Backbone:
């Protein structure tokens, strides 16, 4: 019996290095309008007919919707969309707009003979970004979710994915610096594609305080070390900003969200294992992680286009290993793509602004 050693071959990045390298998946973003708004929603839209889905929640303060439906012991087999949203628990209303869009197209769990008789199951999770633009009530709603799923549908197959301050990353913060959306992908030696999309918004830090290097870049073995003067200047600037973080908008009530996807054919139990091991990628890039004031959540999606190696009980290992690595790399890309913000809700410089290394 052939077995897989995950160290045998290094995977290569997909063509876009994005979640949409998994054929059939589309990503759409929408922002909350208004001068005092700094929040939004990101939707991952599955191919029509849905994808096998699972979830693993590790944070102590999660805000979620329909995650119980993904338990392998329960009825729902496939989902049409996943919602990642700002606005804390208020922002979960965005899932209602995604449900409405799916219902209009007859997509969901069929409960009657007519096309419109469906119930779309739309799992969702939220990040805390309330008040970061200055307006406490500026948060995603059903209209935001509808706009995000419509943007995903209209993007076409294999479209690039907006990163940084896009969608649910609009008001994201990681430690003392601006967070956001990041995405990455890999193609395994057997042709299987695995990808991740992350909304990095953590109470912990992504930056090693001793060196200024992003923790996640140590994984690649080639971290970009800033000069001592650059690091010292960045540390002073962050120290100057810290006293201003005492108001409600700056409290470390955060969450990092991820969707890890593959075109492999996975059972629901295998998908749940993928969601669980992907949390290792968060732990490599964010320290500390999975705190009581985080709601860290990972969703897994499997489109089933490619079978795993038959007769090999360890074939899933390569998918699990690279999935965690991709979450780490997506967090790095989120930090590097983010743009700093300054306003009534607080000042949050970007990593690139502080260290000048794009």
Residues:
């Amino acid at each position: 019996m052939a077995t897989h050693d995950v160290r045998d071959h290094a995977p290569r990045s997909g063509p876009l290095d994005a979640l949409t390298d998994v054929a059939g998946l589309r990503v759409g973003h929408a922002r909350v309008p208004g001068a005092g708004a700094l929040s939004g929603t990101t939707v991952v839209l599955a191919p029509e007919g849905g994808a096998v889905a699972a979830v693993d929640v590790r944070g102590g303060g999660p805000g979620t919707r329909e995650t119980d439906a993904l338990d392998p012991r329960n009825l729902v087999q496939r989902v049409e969309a996943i919602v990642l949203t700002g606005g804390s628990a208020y922002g979960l209303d965005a899932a209602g707009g995604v449900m409405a869009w799916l219902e209009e197209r007859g997509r969901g769990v069929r409960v009657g003979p007519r096309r419109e008789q469906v119930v779309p199951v739309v799992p969702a999770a939220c990040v805390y970004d309330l008040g970061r633009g200055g307006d406490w009530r500026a948060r995603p709603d059903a209209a935001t979710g509808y706009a995000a799923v419509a943007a995903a549908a209209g993007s076409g197959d294999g479209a690039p994915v907006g990163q940084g301050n896009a969608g649910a990353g609009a008001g994201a913060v990681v430690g003392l610096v601006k967070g956001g959306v990041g995405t990455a992908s890999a193609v395994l030696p057997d042709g299987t594609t695995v990808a991740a999309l992350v909304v990095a918004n953590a109470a912990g830090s992504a930056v090693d305080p001793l060196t200024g290097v992003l923790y996640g870049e140590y994984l690649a073995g080639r971290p970009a070390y800033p000069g001592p003067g650059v690091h010292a200047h960045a540390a002073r600037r962050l120290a100057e900003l810290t006293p201003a973080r005492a108001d409600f908008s700056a409290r470390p009530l955060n969450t990092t969200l991820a969707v890890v996807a593959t075109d492999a054919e996975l059972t629901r139990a295998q998908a749940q294992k993928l969601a669980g091991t992907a949390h290792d990628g968060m732990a490599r890039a964010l320290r500390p992680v999975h705190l009581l004031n985080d709601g860290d959540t990972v969703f897994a999606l499997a489109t089933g286009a490619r079978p795993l190696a038959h007769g090999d009980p360890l074939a899933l290992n390569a998918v699990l290993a690279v999935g965690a690595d991709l979450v780490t790399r997506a967090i790095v890309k989120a930090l590097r793509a983010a743009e700093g913000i300054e306003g009534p809700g607080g000042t949050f410089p970007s990593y690139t602004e502080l260290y000048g290394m794009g």
Observations:
- The longest strand covers residues 297-306.
- The chain is about 25% helix and 20% strand.
- The mean pLDDT is 91.
- Residues 41 and 85 are 4 Å apart (CA to CA).
